[in-house]
Structure formats: structure tokens, C-alpha cells
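Give me the 3D structure for Ca2+-transporting ATPase.
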Amino acid sequence: MKWYQLKTEETAQKLGVDLEKGLTNQEAENRRRKMGANVLEDEKQTSLLLVFLKQFQDFMVLVLLAATLVSGLLGEYIDAIAIMIIVLINGFIGFFQEQRAEKSLAKLKELSAPLAHVKRDGEWVKIPSKDVVVGDLIKIASGDRVPADVRLTKAGSLELEESALTGESLPVAKMVAPLDQGQLEPQDQHNMLFMGTLASRGSGEGVVVGTGMNTAMGQIASLLVKTEQMTTPLEKKLAELGKLLIVIALLLTLFVVLIGVYQGHPLYQMFLAGVSLAVAAIPEGLPAIVTVALSLGVQRMIKRKAIVRKLSAVETLGSASVICSDKTGTMTENQMTVKEIFTPGNWYHVTGEGYDTNGAFYEDNREVLPDQLRSLLLYGTLCNHASLIKKKGKLGVDGDPTEGAILVAARKAGITDETVASFKIIKEVPFDSDRKRMTVLIEDDKGNRFSITKGAPDVLLARTAFIVDGQRRAMKSADQMKIEQAVARMAGKALRTIAIGVKSVPSGQTPDDFSLEKDLTLLGVTGMIDPPRKEVRGAIAECQQAGIKTVMITGDHALTARAIAQDLRLLPANGQVLEGSQLSNMTEEQLSDVIENVYVFARVTPEHKLKIVKAFQKKGHVVAMTGDGVNDAPAIKASDIGISMGNSGTDVAKEASSLVLLDDNFATIKSAIKEGRNIYENIRKFIRYLLASNVGEILVMLFAMLLALPLPLIPVQILWVNLVTDGLPAMALGLDQPEQDVMRRKPRSPKEGIFSRGLGFKIISRGLLIGLVTLVAFMTAYQDNPDNLRYAQTMAFATLVMAQLIHVFDCRSDRSVFSRNPLQNLYLVGAVASSMLLLLVVLYFDPLQEVFHTMDLSLKDWLLITALSAIPTVMFGFSKK
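Predicted structure for Ca2+-transporting ATPase (881 residues):
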């Protein structure tokens, strides 16, 4: 179907959609079931069987399996079967860990996918792009990515960046009228929008004519996007660490084997023991556990209303030293309410709160509604993209809250949808953050034309030639001063100011953009309040304790910004407020000299944000930067942690960011930083636990060989220890709660190594002690009963397991083991209890005693085991080292 040839009414008729109400939810669901989801086919997923088999492709595991086969051929059937079972269980654990990580990352990808703005049952709603169906009426604004192929029905200065589809770098202007040409390529179909392209200017509406693989993008196989493998810097570091540890472990294992053979132990027995030791000692599962810990942390962040789009951000969050945050909606409620209105010569106070349309206008305590005030509100309603909608029985705003506040004030003046129905928009010059204004060309039912410009007072004053003061007259310098004083008075009360101006246009004419916004007649200025969020003040204070500087960035007047910053206790007594005009005149070096003392940037553009980011980074800071618009994307991308708004943010901003705030709330940034710090600390905890345990296992075997003692552990016991004590407890450490002082520490240096802050010493010292106490248990039992090697090995086996399970609680803090409640982490308590139960089963269940070469232990034995096992933890229990 050549949709570009059809009129909009014909398109709607063929697709069975009402252009006023859109599809019904039921009809949309029926179409989705029939046509499938609006997604491009992805690369084929690896089968579960191959993922499972991949767990056994590690070289050392293959060597172990070969050695086990040899052991079975030599008649050691029980040992061979036991080792095979343990290897299989290990494989299943790795398989489930990998599956959990994959599912978490898939869920993460789904959560961070773009939303579409569609009309269902007469109401505009946001839905996941994958749920868009053919026939949906869709709304597109600057910064949105088009979710499907769309035939335009409305367009206001709409331009699309279509390079992803056509390779054309310049934006393409769009139109609504049908095209009568016979065969047009996508780049020439100017009344069509295509999936994956980007709205760079203006706004529009249209009907979806193609979804998924039935789009122009879907037909280009080379543009299919493959799933990106998310590997974080930390995972890369640990992979490199793993390679180093493999070399060290193999050398030590080879040393143990050679000494054992030299001392007369059978070659096959020492080879099997050496390979088992290498498999247990090499932390091959470390990267997988890190991925799982990161993904579990990401799930916790989602519950705190923060979606992590890039796993590397989790690490970087712990290093954040500066948060540059937008004011509106992030630090404030984003529920604007008009409180004061100034028209040349008059002041009005407006009653009512939030989006409640009950309220009135007062002048000197008298309720009034003069024509001049009503005209200002009518024009503010006409030059407006927002709409009032019912949300759960309450009136809400769909669109910009500032525009919504003007609509609510207009409702208080009796201006309704029916009032504005007789006016027709001929042309629109859309708002953008550089121009700080928006203009529409309007025609009334009598054919009269006039333009309305709405924007920042200082911008409109520069374009104003007349004012309405009872009647229209030329503006004088005294008038300008009076208006500027009124704006300053409002700003001093933390009111955001919006000015509205008009201009008559000859009938039938459509002037250019410049002419429409020249020689305006100023009607007045509205002052609206967006109160600070209640939780933000505490979040800022907590960030200050954590050594994180909070900086407010806003397009508002400097006095407004200062008032809000002081209310939030963000601006210290000697802190500076820097305006955009000052920022523009500064070099990067000049800004770098003063930026440490600047806490508020007012009247800034998105381009200024990039300059701010670079200045802070030049001072060595790790910068988090928020944004929601298209022009914010460069600063978001340049920052160390780019943060976009989930509600008000454009798709471009979200794609450039590494963190998306579902509630657009500054307090969520603080929660994400706290969670990021905790995730990093938890990763350090289980690295400490795993490596100290592995060091202990290697050293007990090495010391025994050096002392010419029998093997203190047999291969199946070594593998069992690796399976039971290294698995569940290590994973439970990844779920540990934050320590109480986690937000009272300075930001972590991004150059900090994984073994910094004494972690290397802790691993070696605890590992050495775990190995020594295990050897002491073995030697004590062996000397008491040299004819019963099984008893001595059982004592060593139980002591090694117990020492590791007690040591895991020491790993919960860099301080004393007694500094934290051991019952606080119930996952860890459960993991240790499970490991203890499995140990008792292996020791006292007769069939397994034969498999694991164990025997019953007495109460006296357990007292010795417990005392020895506690030494590595208790000895350092009161120490921070």
C-alpha cells in the first residue's frame, strides 16, 4: 500500500481507526495478537543445551573429567562417580547463574526500551513501543524516536533526522498533504515517518501503517540490531585477575603434585588431587558471580525507581563526587501552579493549588476577572501543547507542567476546550531551549490572523514594542523597568515567570518566523510556583555527608533559582550563583577556576551543560549529569554518569544516558548512588571470601607436602568444599545490606584497584590462617591415630569447611567482625546453615561416608574443630586490617 498517496481520512478509513478517539484497547489487543509485537527480529538465542554444555568447556574441568575416567578404569569407581556428580552439580549451578544473569539483562533491556504516545479509547497514554499496532493514532514530539511506520495526520514545524534509514544527515521537513507521485523512495515520502528515525524539531500526529518487520527499517536486514554484550570495566579487571590466578594456582598445584610424587604417592592419585585442587582454587566462576551480583543490584535499583541502562554505571556510581541536577521536576514536584499575574499596571493573586481548577483571581483582596487578564489566559491556552486529562479520578496534565499550569489558570477564568475550538493553528514555531520561546500563528472563525509568543520575559522584552495598559501603546524605558522589577519580585518568591505577547497579522498572510516574533505587544507575565519535593532536602544533606557536591542547573531566573536552592539548603553562605550569560563569556580555564564554589547555574542552555561537565571533570571530579531534552544528550553522554528522566525525558536523552529515573526524582539519584556503592562493596566482599578460601585450600595441601605428610584432603573432598562453601555463601554476600556508614564515606577513586584498602592483606592473612588451622587439625588427629588416615582427613575436611563458613561473616565489613549483626543478612545465614547441613550429611550419612572417605566425629572432635575454625576470624576480629 502506497500510504503516502492517500488522504488522511482515506488512511484512517482503510485502517479502521477514528482520528479523534484512536483504537479501543480491545481492538488494539486483537490486532497485536494477530500481527505480533512491534519488534525487529533479533539474532537467534543460544539453546539451553549449548549454554549448559558451555559450563564444561573450561580446560581444567575437561582435564578433571579425563583424570576421573582414568581413575574409574583403575577401579576407583566410587571416587570417579562422586567427582562426576559434583562436576555436574557445579555445571548446573553455573548454568542457572548464567540464565539468571541473561534474564536480568533481558529485563533490563525491556525496561529501558522506548515508550510510544498513543491514543486509546479517546485518551493519550504511554505504552511500550513493542505494544504499538497498525491503526494506532500516535503523537510525536521533538526528541522522540518513531516507534513504527506512520502516515502523518498533523504536523507543526516537524522535522525528522532519518540518517539511520536513508543515510541523509540533514533533517527532513514533514508535511501532511498526500503525494500523487507513483513510486517514491522512503527519503522522498515527506508525509511519512519511519521506524527508528528521530524527531529533531516540532511535533506531529499520525496513524501507524506498519509495525515490526513490516516497516521500512524491518526490510533492511543489515540494520538489524544485535544484542550488545554488557561487559563492565570491573568484569574485565576480574577476567584479567582470573587469568593471573589461574597461572599461580597451576604452578602451585604442579608443585604440590611433583612433591607428592617425589614422596612416594601414586602418580594417578596425585594427578587427580592436583587437578581437583586446581579446579577448586581457580575462581573461574568469579565473573559470572559478579554479573549476577550486578544484575541483582540492578533489580534492587528498579524497585527504587532507577533503571540502569549500562552496567558499568553501577561501578561508576560509587565514585560520583558531583551531581549536576535539573531543578524542575527533579528537585521540585513538577506540578506548576500560577500564583501571581502581572499585566502592565495591575497585579493579580491566583488562588487554588496544584491542578485543581477551583480558584479565583484577586486584585487588592477583590475578586476580579478583567478582559485583559482573560485575554492573556486565552492566548496562553492557544499557544500551548499540554492538555488536561483525568488520572484516577483526579485532573492531571499531559505535557509540559508549565503549559499545564496556564491551562489550569485559564479554566479558573472559565476558558474551556469549547472556547478555543473556534481558533485554528496555521503555523507553529516550536519551543526549544535555545530560543526560550514558542510561537503560533492563529486564525479565528472570522478569518482574522494573529501570532502568539510565549516564553522567558527577558527574551520577549527584547522583542516587545508595545504594551496593553488599558489600551495598546508604545512601550517606554520606564515601562520596561517596571516589568523587569515585577519579574524580579516574582523570582524573589521562587516563582517561575512566563511572558505572553501577541501580534496582528494581515488576513491570508503567513509571515516568516522572524517577522512573527518581532514588534510584539506584551500582555503580561505569569508567576508560577513548583514547590520543592519534600524528600530532596534530606537527600542533598545525605549526599553532602557522602562527600558529593550537589549542583542545581535551571533555565529559571537567578533569583528564583537562589530562593529554591536556599530552601533546599543546597547553597552555602559563600556559594555562588552563575548565570548563563556569564557562563557564555567565560573560557574553560576561567570556569575551571571558579567552578568549585558554584552551586547554582541559572538561565543556562543545554549547551552550557557540556561546558559545566568538562569543567568539573577537569578538576578531577566524577560527574553525574541529568537531562531530558535532545540538546541535553551531548552533556549526558560526556558525563561519567548520564541520567535521563523516565517521565519527561526524550528517547534521545534516554539512549545517551546510563541511568533512567522512573520518577524524575533527585532523591532517586541519591538512592542509586547508595546502591551502587553497596554493590561494589559486596563484590569486594565475595572476592575476599572466595580468594581467601582458595588460598587456604592450596596452602593446606602445600604445607602437608612440604612436611612429608599424607594428603590431608582427597580429590572428592576438595571438589565438595569448592561446591558447597564457595557457592551459596559467596552469592549471599552479594545480597548483603549496606553498612550504616556507606553514605558517610568519601567517593571511591575511579583509579582504585580491586585489592586496595587492605583487601590483598586480608585475603593472604586469612587464607594463610585457614590453611594453618586445617593442617593443625589434620596433624593433631593423625598423630593421635596414625593408623586411621580417614579420621585425620575427616578432621581436616570439617575444619576447612567450618573455618570458611565462620570467615564469611568476617567478610561483611572492612572493620571488626563484631561491628555488624550476623543475623542481619538472612540470605547469608540460610546459605551457611545449608552448607552446615550438607557437611553433616556427608559426615554422618553412611552411604556418603564411603563416597567422601569420612567418618563419625565425636563431641570432643567438634570442640577442637570449632576452636580451630574460629581462629582466623577471631584473631583479626578486633582489627581493621
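The first strand starts at residue 115 and ends at 120. Let me know if you want a second pass.
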